[in-house]
């Protein structure tokens, strides 16, 4: 409980500070253009080749972006190119390696000027965030595991927080839905649960990368679930799909395609559910903060200051809901994966 | 005729939000009724309520994703 309260206080402080961050897109040169929140919101949701924190304007009015450049690794036509994304100068320059000229398009993707296809293996913002979350996860769970081995009996500290969570996932989600052979799937499902949980929670920190709200990440997670389900499917599983028991023969031409499509739609729904829930949460939070800048645009600075407390309060409220959604989505993903695996390994009764 | 399809996307997202609201509201209502009738099974009912709510919300989010694509 104390950890949750500390997390809430921390998030409140960060959110209040974040509302002062200069997402300042109202340029003083063209007063007529209304503030459009969409590019700013989309920039925070999307992946990027540099970790952009903020922009600040110096006295001359020039815009200085503050960001951490990340490595860019590209494979084109048999050549492996490696450079830091600071070479792109926030999109203003192009990079020449041999006879290849690379630049950033308006979506932040790397294109080669003569149109050759580029395979992008870069360490982008999401990759860096995933590496960070994996390191954090490893440290946290290693401490818990070592404490479990040492303290025979009374858990203390981090172990007392994580161990009930691990046991909850193991008993109520995995063992209940898979049945006897659950130990085989424990590593995978526990990893999925904690990976999604940590990345969901980290995504709520201002300035972080939006990992689980990226459809490529959720695609991979659901593909892995699909592969595990399909590989561990026994004869009953395939029998249920191609010869559903108790179905009159005349309905089989309808049932079999539906059941066959169901093999693919279930992981697809897993992917969309996690992606949309987390992305939508981030978009809501970012849009509520953008309200301040929209108010500045139409009501002036006084209006912006007036809207700010309301906006920050809403953002705090939504952030608390998003913490619940973070846990819930991790729980649902793991639960449904366990249910699908359980359906695949069910024994004849 | 110049049409801004962004407006239709917003209406579509709103309609799918109505669907989600009605669906999850019904689930929550029925779950609360069941918990009131049999308080000793509250835990199981709550678990199943979350599962069903997530499934319904998944369907509604299909609509949101399609709206976002526009």
In short:
The complex is a heterodimer of chains A (349) and B (70). Chain A is mostly helical.
What brief labels describe this structure?
heterodimer, A: 349 residues, three-stranded antiparallel beta sheet, 8 helices, B: 70 residues, F1FO ATP Synthase, 2 helices, 87% helix
Structure overview:
- The complex is a heterodimer of chains A (349) and B (70).
- By secondary structure, chain A is mainly alpha-helical.
- Chain A contains 8 helices and 8 strands, in the order H-H-E-E-E-E-E-E-E-E-H-H-H-H-H-H.
- Chain A has helices at residues 2-18, 37-45, 125-150, 158-178, 186-203, 215-231, 235-242, 252-344; strands spanning 50-57, 63-69, 71-76, 79-84, 95-97, 100-104, 110-112, 119-120.
- The two termini of chain A are 43 Å apart.
- Chain B has one domain (8-69): Up-down Bundle (F1FO ATP Synthase), CATH 1.20.20.10.
- Helices cover 87% and strands 0% of the residues of chain B.
- Chain B is built from 2 helices and no strands.
- The two termini of chain B are 18 Å apart.
- The mean pLDDT of chain B is 86.
The first-to-last residue Cα distance of chain B is 18 Å
Main sheet makeup of chain A: 3 strands, antiparallel
Number of strands of chain A: 8
- What is the 3D shape of chain A? globular
- As an assembly, this protein is heterodimer
Main beta sheet strand tally, sense and closure of chain B: none
User: What gyration radius of chain A follows from the Cα positions, in whole Å?
Assistant: 24 Å
Structural class of chain B: mainly alpha
Strand content of chain B: under 5%
SSE diagram, text form:
The complex is a heterodimer of chains A (349) and B (70).
Chain A (H helix, E strand, L loop, with lengths): L1 H17 L18 H9 L4 E8 L5 E7 L1 E6 L2 E6 L10 E3 L2 E5 L5 E3 L6 E2 L4 H26 L7 H21 L7 H18 L11 H17 L3 H8 L9 H93 L5
Antiparallel strand pairs in A: 1-2, 3-4, 3-8, 5-6, 6-7
Chain B lengths: L4 H33 L4 H28 L1
């Amino acid at each position: 409980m104390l950890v949750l309260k500390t997390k809430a206080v921390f998030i409140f402080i960060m959110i209040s500070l974040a509302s002062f961050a200069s997402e300042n897109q109202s340029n003083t040169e063209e007063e007529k253009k209304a503030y459009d929140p969409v590019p700013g919101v989309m920039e925070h949701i999307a992946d990027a080749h540099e970790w952009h924190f903020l922009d600040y304007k110096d006295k001359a009015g020039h815009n200085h972006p503050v960001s951490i450049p990340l490595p860019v690794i590209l494979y084109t036509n048999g050549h492996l190119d490696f450079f830091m994304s600071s070479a792109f100068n926030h999109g203003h320059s192009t990079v020449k390696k041999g006879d290849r000229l690379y630049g950033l398009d308006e979506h932040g993707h790397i294109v080669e000027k003569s149109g050759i296809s580029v395979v992008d293996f870069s360490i982008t913002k999401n990759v860096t965030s995933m590496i960070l979350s994996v390191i954090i996860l490893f440290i946290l769970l290693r401490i818990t595991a070592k404490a479990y081995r040492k303290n025979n009996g009374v858990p203390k500290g981090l172990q007392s927080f994580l161990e009930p969570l691990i046991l909850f996932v193991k008993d109520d989600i995995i063992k209940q839905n898979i049945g006897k052979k659950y130990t085989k799937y424990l590593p995978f499902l526990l990893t999925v649960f904690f990976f999604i949980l940590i990345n969901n929670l980290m995504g709520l920190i201002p300035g972080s990368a939006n990992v689980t709200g990226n459809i490529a990440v959720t695609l991979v997670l659901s593909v892995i679930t699909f592969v595990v389900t399909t590989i561990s499917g026994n004869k009953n599983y395939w029998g249920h799909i191609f010869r559903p028991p108790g179905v009159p023969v005349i309905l089989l031409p309808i049932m079999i395609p539906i059941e066959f499509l169901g093999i693919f739609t279930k992981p697809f729904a897993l992917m969309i559910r996690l992606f949309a829930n987390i992305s939508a949460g981030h978009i809501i939070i970012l849009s509520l903060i953008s309200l301040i800048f929209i108010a500045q645009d139409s009501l002036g600075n006084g209006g912006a200051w007036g809207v700010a407390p309301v906006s920050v309060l809403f953002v705090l409220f939504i952030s608390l809901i998003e913490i619940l959604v973070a846990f819930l989505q991790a729980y649902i993903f793991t639960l449904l994966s366990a249910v699908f695996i359980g359906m695949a390994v069910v024994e004849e009764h | 005729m110049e049409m801004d399809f962004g407006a239709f996307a917003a209406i579509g997202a709103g309609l799918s939000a109505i669907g989600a609201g009605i669906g999850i509201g019904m689930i929550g209502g029925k779950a609360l009724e069941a918990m009131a009738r049999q308080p000793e099974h509250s835990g199981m009912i709550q678990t199943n309520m979350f599962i069903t709510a997530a499934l319904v919300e998944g369907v509604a989010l299909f609509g949101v994703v399609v709206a976002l694509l526009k």
